[in-house]
């Protein structure tokens, strides 16, 4: 596990809290942590657990993954994946449950595609273009005469 970069995490949390126009006390209440504890996190004096980071992320309406990256718990993902998650999380027409479901579906598709590309040999319809599929008989009419 990477070492926690608590100073940068605290600065990032403070910035996110201010952007959300929340006082320290309001964020502490919303996240279910004590006011002094949150103050210590923001000043870089405490290392919050992943659970606390998740509670803070929920209260700030940002992804927990963002805080995990800031804390050094996770490596940053590809920018396009982070952008997609950010757009989903920022959509005001979706409730929190819908946002989480969409992100889970998106991540499962990315994982599925990553596993297909990295660990399995291409099978019928996997990893081939249209012309290659036709050349090996995939998608051909079974009643057509074979050459």
List the keywords.
8 helices, 62% helix
SSE order and pairing:
Layout lengths: L5 H14 L4 H8 L3 H8 L7 H11 L3 H8 L7 H12 L5 H24 L10 H6 L12
Order of helices and strands: HHHHHHHH
* Molecular shape: globular
Q: Give the class from helix and strand content and strand pairing.
A: mainly alpha
Mean pLDDT, to the nearest integer, reads 75
Multimeric organization: single chain
What does this structure look like?
The protein is mainly α and about 150 residues long. Helices cover about 60% and strands about 0% of the residues. The termini are far apart. It is globular and about 45 Å long.
Short description:
This protein is an all-alpha fold.
């Amino acid at each position: 596990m990477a070492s926690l970069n608590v100073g940068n995490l605290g600065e990032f949390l403070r910035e996110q809290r201010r952007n959300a126009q929340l006082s320290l006390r309001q964020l502490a209440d919303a996240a279910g942590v004590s006011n002094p504890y949150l103050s210590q996190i923001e000043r870089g004096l405490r290392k919050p657990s992943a659970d606390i980071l998740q509670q803070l992320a929920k209260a700030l309406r940002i992804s927990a993954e963002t805080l995990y990256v800031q804390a050094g718990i996770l490596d940053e993902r590809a920018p396009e994946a982070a952008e997609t998650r950010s757009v989903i999380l920022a959509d005001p027409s979706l409730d929190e449950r819908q946002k989480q479901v969409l992100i889970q579906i998106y991540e499962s598709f990315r994982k599925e595609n990553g596993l297909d590309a990295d660990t399995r040999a291409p099978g019928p319809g996997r990893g081939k273009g249209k012309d290659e599929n036709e050349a090996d008989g995939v998608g051909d009419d079974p009643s057509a005469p074979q050459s």
